[in-house]
Write a structure and sequence with these properties.
Length: 348
Amino acid sequence: MAQTTPNHTQTVSGWAAHDSSGKITPYTFKRRENGMNDVTIKVLYCGICHTDLHHVRNDWGITMYPVVPGHEITGLITKVGSNVTEFKVGDRVGVGCLAASCLECEFCKDSQENYCDQIQFTYNGIFWDGSITYGGYSKMLVADQRYVVHVPENLPMDAAAPLLCAGVTVFCPFKDNNMLEAPGKKIGVIGLGGLGHVAVKFGKAFGHHVTVISTSPSKEEEAKDRLGADDFIVSTDAAQMKVCYLLTIYSTSYVSYCTEIKTKEVSFDCLDLVVDRQGRGKRVVKGSMTGSMKETQEMMDVCGKYNITCDIETIPPEKINEALDRLAKNDVKYRFVIDIDAQKPASL
Ligand SMILES: [Zn+2]
Ligand SMILES: [Zn+2]
């Protein structure tokens, strides 16, 4: 569809999957001209999110091939439209999951456009002009200024890239529960992966007591010694989990963030939400989906303040398939980031 949209005149090199084999190959396509509200971005880095893997393999049955994945994008602005006031050429910027929303619903008007029911994503979405959106596994991106954020000067562009999805996803629960400026809470982080390791960093930066809950006992040293977690619980150990359950139920300040992406049923006695040892309680089970653009910028600024980035393994574009295979086996610490401009070695 994008190829036939009239103002899609800019030729871009990227990488796409063409069928459910998920194999990524170089792909040349068209992007729209830079409109009045748009910025054009030279893409420097793009993180590989688990969502990319689901899309290239059509795990959810919604993929429109060819799909150019990537929604953890950092780069430099090369062009701005006449209505753009917040950005200028040369600015260090990031683009996350969102490409468009209705701009008129209660969520859009309240800077919560990530909950707009007409939300369109950075790839595999349908933009306002009817074209299919293509993501950050590409050398250049045109984005509406509303869905672009500044990247603080002190953050490296490669390790900052995954903050655009993984970072904001775990930042919002802190923000939502007023835990940015109120230290001393107890937090449980379930799953120490791409999201979990950033959640630990946020938790410690904001002065909380952080417990990592993981299926892998081998991650304890890493969680405590390197990432600074205070406690570690092995989720397959029934005795340890019982303590964890009691903490969650009986403590008034225990917040657990599940960062695992497998779907799971959760069951609990609803009385536990209102009754504790003292005979009272006010507990909440809650979810959130990524974050708004306002929250994404706030998260970036907070990361600049505390010097928080993701732990990454950088790869050249030729290794995207290898990285996706390794990601499927959870063989990455903690996020792959594609160096979009990496030069091919002469031997290839
Ligand atoms: Zn993602
Ligand atoms: Zn809306």
